[in-house]
Design brief:
Radius of gyration: 28 Å
Distance between the termini: 85 Å
Oligomer: single chain
Number of domains: 2
Order of helices and strands: HHHEEEEE
Number of strands: 5
Structural class: alpha+beta
Strand order of the largest sheet: 1-2-3-5-4
Largest sheet: 5 strands, mixed, barrel
Helix content: 25-40%
């Protein structure tokens, strides 16, 4: 009877895991249980309101259920652990370890993929840029610059208010909001 219970957990957890993967990517998990996770079902439900994966994530829960069933079956094979009061606690401990490892792996994946392609403003001061739309006297034009291997464009003014022709090389001197201030390089 105990083996049947463990097999049920193993099968249920496996099906639950497949459903999480399938429905998390096909349906998207949006607009449900919007508490802290921004409505993303794959992130779980918690009150942290931060990026990452919760211990209540369906994927983490599914890994716990599957591991509990699997380790329960494994422990049933040993004579000393045939009794449920021995195999169940051992299976729970092992399932907690597997769920913890799953949680840590998912959190690390989230951290690595949360980077942004936007450049940091402080790193732009002193960078060289090219005027792609002429900057009229006391007006706004457009520059392009390369930062972190990516090319960006931004609205720009000449620091002293002078006109800058298209194709000129300039240096970024400051950034105020979305407005870049530049100086013609000589």
């Amino acid at each position: 009877m105990t083996t049947f219970i463990y097999l049920t957990f193993l099968f249920t957890g496996f099906v639950f895991m497949l459903a999480c993967i399938l429905f998390g990517h096909i349906i998207g998990g949006h607009d449900s249980a919007d508490i802290g996770s921004g409505g993303h079902a794959e992130a779980g439900v918690d009150s942290s309101d931060g990026a990452g994966v919760s211990i209540f994530s369906p994927t983490v829960i599914a890994s716990f259920i599957t591991a509990f069933g699997g380790f329960g079956i494994i422990f049933q094979q040993f004579e000393w652990a045939k009794k449920p009061y021995v195999s169940a606690p051992l299976a729970i401990v092992c399932a907690l370890v597997v769920a913890g490892i799953t949680l840590e792996i998912l959190r690390r994946i989230f951290i690595e993929t949360q980077s942004s392609s936007e450049s940091k403003v402080a790193d732009l001061i002193g960078k060289e840029a090219t005027v792609i739309t002429p900057i009229p006297e006391n007006g706004v034009g457009e520059i392009t610059y390369i930062h972190g291997g990516s090319r960006y464009s931004a609205p720009a003014r000449e620091e002293s208010g002078a006109a800058v022709p298209n194709g000129s090389l300039v240096k970024i001197t400051k950034v105020v909001g979305a407005q870049f201030y530049v100086k013609i390089q000589k």
